[in-house]
Each structure stands twice: as C-alpha cells, then as structure tokens.
Design brief:
Length: about 110
Amino acid sequence: MGDLFAKIWAWVESTQVREQVVDVDYVALFSNPWFMVPFVVLIGYLLYKQAFRDLIIVAAFVGVWWVSGTEYMATLVVGETLQIDKILPVLFGGAALLGFLVYLLFGRSD
C-alpha cells in the first residue's frame, strides 16, 4: 500500500502542480479578462439562481487558494523542520472548513 502512495506522490511531483500554483501571478490573473469574465459570469449565474451553497463553496476554494500563497504558509517548514506551533492552526482551520463543507453538501436539504 505504501508503494502505491509513493508512486502516486511521484506522479504528482512530476506534474509540478505545486510549483505552478506557487508561481501564479495573482495581479495578472485577476486583471486577465480570459479568467475574470468567466469567473464573474459564474458568480453572477450563481447569484441569479440563488445557489448560496455553491457560492460558499467557490468562496472557500478561492480563500484556501489565497491563504496557501501567504507568507504564513511559506514559513510552516523551516529547513527540514515542521513548525508545530504554526501547523496546528492550519490543521484545525482546515478541519473546521472541511466539516462545514461536508455539512453544506450532505447535512441539510434544500
């Protein structure tokens, strides 16, 4: 089973997705009409349909993406050492967000 995870992790690292996410130029992305027009249309459509659950999910993904690029996240690992006093708020915040999203998706009916 560990070999399977090692192969999957090697594949994920070979795609260099992490480096691509880190290297995103936020100012250029949010001033690019090829991104902003579909994004604004999606938000407008969700508001028109009053799909507030979906709006909250989109906002959560954008928020996690924004937080992952902050200086705080960059200092979670210093050298080879994981900073436990900094990782615990991230862990509990992620667990709370995941619990909230699971509640939105499965916990209540529309």
